[in-house]
Amino acid sequence: MNRKVEVLPDLPALIERSLSIILSKLSEAIEARGQFTIALSGGSTPKPLYEAIAAQNLPWEKIHVFWGDERYVPPNHPDSNELMARQAWLNKVNIPPQNIHAMPTLDGNPAVSAAKHEKELQEFFQVKALEFPALDVILLGMGDDAHTASLFPHTDALKVTDKLVTVGNKGDSQRITFTYPFINAARCVMFVVAGANKKPSLAQVFAPAADNFTYPSRLIKPQGELLWLLDAAAGDELAAASV
Ligand SMILES: O=C(O)[C@H](O)[C@@H](O)[C@H](O)[C@H](O)COP(=O)(O)O
């Protein structure tokens, strides 16, 4: 695992740096493999990043968009991660609809939807069961409880290691989420984290020893690159420590 931490002075600088890294990964991927695959995170932090991507002039037909997790609500529900990304980005560009690989949430049962999405991913990446394909970039946020995607502390989702997708839950709100082994198969995992409220969990995630099931972001140790992009409010103590 090749872990890098960058602390940017504020949210606009964090978004700008995140955009420039994504654009460079995009051109590398298209050069090498003719396409770019990215999984999006939900929550509030990435919205300005998606708006910034939408303003770029990119080869949209070569870009495939996935989500690392989704709330188990219809795609027009205000909590939907898909809705947020479509409104901030995807509805504004000419990306072919078939390049948008949203997590299904209309089967009435998250386990059914997770299994359906697993098959969709296996078909897209041409892999069999127990094979973990590498996305070019997986974007992640981190909650102030150190969850990432919908891998919440002390939940069953943290024990699933033989699937790409599983059911997550935040209390009684149901989710679908990439599993941590699937996230770890990515060429590049980018955490984009802002706000002082994330500081205590970041300290535990970066601590030499802490419980992975209490701080699930610790489970993210990709074979490829691991980038932690933080604003100063979240990461100033980490920056000082790594000096
Ligand atoms: O579905 C979600 O909510 C996200 O995927 C989740 O993992 C998010 O990234 C964190 O909760 C951070 O959210 P904020 O960016 O809003 O702090």
Describe what this molecule looks like in 3D.
- The chain is of the alpha/beta class and 243 residues long.
- The chain has a single domain (24-177, 185-242), classed as Rossmann fold (3-Layer(aba) Sandwich), CATH 3.40.50.1360.
- The protein is 32% helix and 21% strand.
- It has 7 helices and 10 strands.
- It has helices at residues 11-33, 47-54, 81-88, 110-125, 180-184, 199-205, 232-242; strands spanning 2-8, 36-40, 63-67, 69-71, 100-101, 137-140, 165-170, 173-178, 188-193, 225-231.
- The protein has a 7-stranded parallel sheet with strand order 1-10-9-6-2-3-5, sandwiched between helices. A 3-stranded antiparallel sheet has the order 4-8-7.
- Helix 6 (199-205) links the parallel strand 9 and strand 10.
- Helix 1 (11-33) packs across helix 2.
- It starts with a strand and ends with a helix.
- 6-phosphogluconic acid (6PG) is lined by residues 41-45, 69, 81, 141-143, 147-150.
- This is 6-phosphogluconolactonase.
- Pathway: Carbohydrate degradation; pentose phosphate pathway; D-ribulose 5-phosphate from D-glucose 6-phosphate (oxidative stage): step 2/3.
- GO terms for molecular function: 6-phosphogluconolactonase activity.
- Keywords: Hydrolase.
